[in-house]
Amino acid sequence: MQPVDLRKYIEQELQDWAQLGVDGHVHAKNPWVSYHKIVTASAAKTVGALPSEVIVMNSLTVNLHLLMVSFYRPTKQRFKIIMEAGAFSSDMYAIESQVRFHGLDPDKTIIELQPREKEFTIRHEDILKTIEENKKDLALVMIGGVNYYTGQAFDIKGITTAAHKAGALAGFDLAHAAGNIHLDLHDWKADFAVWSTYKYLNSGPGAVGGAFIHEKHIRRKDLPRFAGWWGHQEKERFLMKKGFRPTPSAEGWQVSNAPVLSMAAHKASLDIFDEAGIKQIIHKSQKLTGYMEYLIGIECKVPSAEERKNNPELYNIKIITPKEIDQRGCQLSILVRKNSKELFENLKREGFIVDWRSPNVIRVAPVPLYNTFEEVYKFSNLLAKTCCHE
Ligand SMILES: *Cc1c(COP(=O)(O)O)cnc(C)c1O
């Protein structure tokens, strides 16, 4: 959704631009030269990081590439990457192309975590086992915070600890996690993370992305990076001198100056998160999602594990998102065995914005910032009416 005040935030920059031209760089109400700084503290709060560990820049996939340049350093001995099967396509392409960039064969380098047969989500114990089995040649575990298709939230802390124990690093794609689930990247010791801000963070089409680099890495001089002037030490940035010297914080990974209009949109959204508080948002999220799960459960008679064992095709609907609240955010992925596309069209006609994923999954996200319990009630009723009673 578009934050109500977003126009005001962007209007401010348009006005300063119209009146000041290039001088807005330093004389705008929010000087453009340092605009990235005004979103850092709030962005850091949403992912549980120190401000020095976070930078809002570029877009998710670009940030993933930039951080893999620094943190995927394959050697003869350690070169493998563990990722989730069925990851978002952009992650697959980014990781595959990074592997090729180092002259390696993706088939021999990338290990995909799979759900067990007849299961939809990946068991944590299987993730740990795969890390353990590959500990001799593992370089990186790169995994989503919340899987976009199933809505499964991974145990970032547990995965990071296991990766480190195996001598590898751990990076996370938080596209569906930032603004959705509780994150404590600093304390969990994740090495790096990237996210987009146009999903739960409501910052608009193509909005600027985020990146996290753990404090223990931000001053390292041995890390290679693809540099640009905006990552150079601030006081020397405009001296235009030879020799890159990075800012000793996440800002040091910046390449270019900030897209201010997109940043302004992001600021409008982050101010709402600050006002509401991520803790309260998550508190409501768990109730709202639990309520939806409960209603779908009784109205559609979602079968118990026992019933399903006896007759797996008995019921038309199955929620494939984990039941455990620490293994999901506000998304429920509903597998609809029959007429899923018709159901989707029907929901859309009635004004529900849900998402249909081939071949038969409908993703629903009762978003705590703007969805109500009443909407969840109406949605669940309609769902039951259209597809549970034939
Ligand atoms: C949306 C999404 C992306 C897309 O990233 P952009 O580079 O911002 O287009 C990548 N990964 C995941 C998991 C996503 O959900």
Structure description:
40% of the residues lie in helices and 13% in strands. With 390 residues, it is an alpha/beta fold. The chain has two domains: 6-276, Aspartate Aminotransferase, domain 2, CATH 3.40.640.10; 278-389, Aspartate Aminotransferase, domain 1. The strands form two sheets. It has a seven-stranded mixed beta sheet, with helices on both faces. It has a four-stranded antiparallel beta sheet with strand order 8-9-11-10, covered by helices on one side. Helix 1 (6-20) runs antiparallel to helix 11 (260-276), helix 3 (37-47) packs across helix 11 (260-276) and helix 7 (124-133) runs parallel beside helix 8 (156-165). The longest helix is centred in the C-terminal third of the chain and has 22 residues, at 278-299. The chain starts with 5 loop residues before the first helix and ends with a helix. The model has no long low-confidence stretch (mean pLDDT 93). The chain binds pyridoxal-5'-phosphate (PLP). Pyridoxal-5'-phosphate (PLP) binds at residues 59-61, 88, 90-91, 144, 148, 173, 175-176, 196, 209.
Question: What are the SSEs and their pairings?
Answer:
Blueprint: H1 6-20, H2 24-27, H3 37-47, E1 54-57, H4 60-71, E2 80-84, H5 89-101, H6 106-109, E3 110-113, H7 124-133, E4 138-144, H8 156-165, E5 169-173, H9 185-188, E6 192-195, E7 209-213, H10 215-218, H11 260-276, H12 278-299, H13 305-310, E8 317-319, E9 332-336, H14 340-349, E10 355-357, E11 361-364, H15 373-387
Parallel strand pairs: 2-3, 2-4, 4-5, 5-6
Antiparallel strand pairs: 1-7, 6-7, 8-9, 9-11, 10-11
The site of pyridoxal-5'-phosphate (PLP) has 13 residues, from α4 and α5.
